[in-house]
Write a structure and sequence with these properties.
- The protein is 42% helix and 9% strand.
- By secondary structure, it is mainly alpha-helical.
- The protein has a three-stranded parallel β-sheet, covered by helices on one side.
- A hairpin with a 4-residue loop joins strand 17 and strand 18.
- Helix 8 packs across helix 24 and helix 15 packs antiparallel against helix 18.
- It is globular.
């Protein structure tokens, strides 16, 4: 009688496994133990190593395989699964398929795009060919994820390699990307969040700045520094007025992260988690966070979104504004304001079990927004008292330190030559105030304004941004006014008492009113906010938008130069933000959609501006990333929502389809890439404008995507019909999809018959047309 066969403890065989859902996150799928196959001979069970009888075909042998035909018989008894040695297969895949050496499998690689994998049911003896860029790149991604979970060998479902790309990308965003982009500023998260790719000082020791008036927080971080001496953490407390331009400039050589909101848990402070954009942007950003929040809400992460509003309330209280980003060099700058819509959207999704707590939270957010509105956006220098238009016009001194090393070389070189200095020497003397150059001061005033606008950079704002009352900013402030009025009326019984004392801007604004401050009685009365006042402010702003920014003859909104007192006829897609905010009349909306939308709509969605407005590009006048032909998630989302608001759902769906098609094809063809932006004309993420693209530099598997691009996908899917979603998953070009639809509609009109719903019938009818 044969002796009993004792397997190593904890061994799980493939046929003993409990079948789990295939399309789950990596931690669930790869989190179990190793799996092995049963064999009549113990030596072939691979318990002591994986050495398949048939090695994967490689190099000159790959083309000897018979081509798999569509009529070949396929086993349908069970889903196909593969038995894979993780490290060996990673080696073979990269060696065979990654011909450009970037640790990604893309359509630009020249490999055979085919690999044989041993099936689990045959103990790796029988093989099945994995073919094409998408399956091979998914294989590489799955192997990388298995390695992350310390798996040496896996049983991999074929369904994870052939997964619907729309479902796969949406799943990765929800289950993986948001998690990878999550940061916390506390003892557990400091080592990650203090890393700053934009720091060019050469000093890498982490530094945190704590606001004045938070002694417990300062002591907490000092204790972290004592508990973790290896970090060499430098804890600094900011002065009461941290945004003084001279002080902020003095921090250029000692940049650091700014402390954000914390909560007490079990007697100790804990950082409230938040999402960063990703890549070189490893801190909390202002307008990025709004669009990130929209994606979080789609994915059910309401608590995370709420925490980001808590950080903005903290920033307004301690730093005077919602900062461009939570680093010391951003203390003078803010970004486009979205706080009210962000807070109201989250409020509408809060758990209804504690309405009083929800109401108290919204009250804090609205009060913070009112303070920001009065002290930043309708106060000088951002407010132009003559027109009442608000501008991006931040304080600041010197050269922005967070830019790439060579970003201003072309600007500084003539001044350096003038003084007989190197660019570095001139920069240091200019920043120290030893050299005075008024024209350069003016240049950097506008450059800082461009960065505050979020559109850094574009020829739309070149050397004039600080003087412009832009259409985007006016619509955002109109939305602020409407949101605040609506919240006061609907949630706070038409009266909201302000708890913090700060300067209130006069209304309506004028040169005279700014010269005459409010009396004590007027200030006291203004502390009690009513919806009537805010709706009046919104109505007044709509009037100045129509007066200064709307151009009837061109059917478009334009920016207004408050110094030259004229419209700037650069055609920007931000004109459609008027639809999002609701400040356009029905007639203006009709003009925008029927006469101007076509100027911006290209194959991959909406470009930032028109080619004509951008002008000719040359070596001396290079492309700017917020100009034609580039497409950005904020512009897409704002247009989709705005068009839907005015009843142009078909146009919104068409634009969403275009952008998601571009995203999905890049995801399929380039190893799962989700970048910061796209060239929407060439449908390419390979962008060479300015600092290139973000979110594309990863090895084997995408970890983060990019914050607002992730959101654009999740939000965009909510606009698509089932038919559209299916077409996007098959990477059906918009020209084909909408061309076929138009052809079928025309056929129906000509014949008086409804077109067939059968796929083959649809194709035949399209051919006949």
């Amino acid at each position: 009688m044969a002796p009993a066969l004792n397997h190593p403890a904890g061994v799980t065989f493939v046929d003993d496994e409990t079948v789990t859902t295939v399309h789950v996150d990596a931690a669930t799928y790869y989190g179990g133990g190793e799996s092995f196959t049963r064999s009549r001979t113990y030596s072939h069970s691979h318990l002591h190593g994986y050495n398949p009888r048939k090695a994967p075909a490689f190099e000159e042998d790959w083309h000897h395989r018979k081509r798999r035909m569509s009529h070949d018989e396929k086993a349908v008894t069970a889903p196909r699964r593969f038995l894979i040695d993780v490290e060996e297969t990673i080696r073979v895949v990269l060696e065979q398929e990654d011909t450009d050496g970037d640790f990604q499998i893309s359509v630009t690689d020249a490999g055979p795009k085919m690999m044989a994998l041993g099936t689990a049911t045959s103990n790796g003896w029988k093989t099945f060919d994995i073919r094409g860029t998408y399956m091979l790149s998914n294989l590489l991604q799955e192997l990388a994820l298995a390695r992350d979970h310390n798996r040496k060998r896996i049983v991999l479902d074929e369904a994870r390699l052939t997964e619907n790309p729309v479902d796969r990308l949406s799943r990765m965003i929800k289950n993986s990307f948001w998690h990878s982009l999550t940061r916390r500023i506390d003892g557990d998260g400091l080592e990650i969040i203090t890393a700053d790719p934009k720091n060019r000082t050469g000093r890498v020791n982490p530094r945190i700045y704590v606001p004045h008036g938070e002694p417990a927080m300062a002591e907490y971080y000092r204790q972290v520094a004592r508990d973790k001496p290896h970090m060499n953490l430098d804890v600094q407390v900011l002065p009461q007025k941290p945004d003084d331009p001279a002080f902020v400039k003095s921090l250029n050589n000692k940049p650091g992260i700014l402390a954000l909101a914390m909560k007490e848990v079990d007697g100790t402070l804990k950082g409230i988690p938040f999402i960063v954009p990703g890549a070189r942007f490893n801190e909390l950003y202002n307008w990025d966070s709004y669009f990130i929040t929209l994606g979080l809400l789609v994915d059910g992460q309401v608590s995370m979104a709420q925490g980001m509003v808590d950080h903005f309330i903290f920033e307004i209280k301690h730093y005077g504004k919602i900062l461009n980003g939570s680093r010391s060099y951003y203390l003078c700058r803010t970004q486009p304001p979205f706080l009210t819509d962000m807070a109201l959207q989250i409020y509408n999704q809060l758990d209804r079990s504690d309405l009083a707590a929800n109401r108290a939270w919204l009250k804090r957010a609205i009060q913070a927004a009112i303070k920001e509105y009065h002290t930043i956006w309708v106060a000088e220098p951002r407010m132009d008292p003559k027109t009442g238009l608000s501008r991006f016009r931040p304080d600041g001194l010197g050269i922005p330190p967070e830019t790439e090393a060579t970003h201003f070389t072309h600007v500084l070189e003539p001044y350096a030559l003038k003084h007989g200095l190197s660019i570095l020497e001139f920069s240091q003397k200019y920043n120290d105030g030893l050299l005075k150059e008024p024209e350069l001061d003016e240049y950097f005033l506008h450059d800082r304004a461009v960065r505050e606008s979020g559109h850094d950079t574009t020829y739309r704002f070149e050397k004039r941004c600080a003087n412009l009352g832009t259409i985007d900013l006016q619509t955002l402030l109109y939305k602020y006014e409407m949101d605040i009025g609506t919240a006061i009326r609907e949630v706070f019984d038409d009266e909201l008492e302000m708890e913090e004392d700060f300067a209130l801007a006069p209304f309506p604004p004028s040169v005279e009113s700014y010269a005459k401050p409010l009396s004590t009685r007027e200030r006291s009365k203004a502390r009690s906010q009513t919806s009537e006042e805010w709706f009046a402010r919104a109505e007044w702003r709509k009037g100045i938008i129509d007066k200064y920014l709307w151009n009837e003859s061109k059917s478009l909104y334009f920016d207004y130069d408050t110094v030259k007192e004229e419209q700037i006829l650069y055609e920007s897609v931000t004109a459609f933000w008027a639809l999002w905010a609701g400040c356009a009349s029905e007639e203006q909306a009709w003009h925008l959609v029927t006469k101007s939308l076509k100027k911006f709509e290209v194959l991959g969605g909406l470009v930032s501006g028109t080619e004509e407005s951008r002008g000719k590009i040359s070596l001396d006048r290079p492309n700017r990333q917020w100009d034609y032909p580039y497409a950005w998630p904020p512009h897409q989302i704002m247009a989709w929502v705005g068009l839907e608001r005015y009843g142009y759902l078909e146009e919104a769906q068409r634009l969403a389809y275009r952008f998601l098609y571009m995203m999905t094809t890049a995801f399929v063809d380039f190893n799962g890439v989700v970048p910061e932006k796209f060239d929407a004309v060439k449908l390419s993420h390979l962008v060479d404008a300015e600092y290139g693209n973000q979110g594309i530099d990863f090895k084997m598997v995408p970890r983060e995507g990019f914050g607002w691009m992730n959101s654009a996908y999740q939000v965009g899917l909510s606009f698509l019909t089932t038919h559209m979603r299916r077409a996007v998953s098959h990477c059906t070009s918009p020209e084909v999809f909408f061309g076929s639809e138009a052809a079928l509609a025309q056929a129906a009109l000509l014949t008086g018959n409804l077109p067939s719903t059968d796929p083959l019938g649809l194709a035949m009818e399209a051919l006949q047309v």
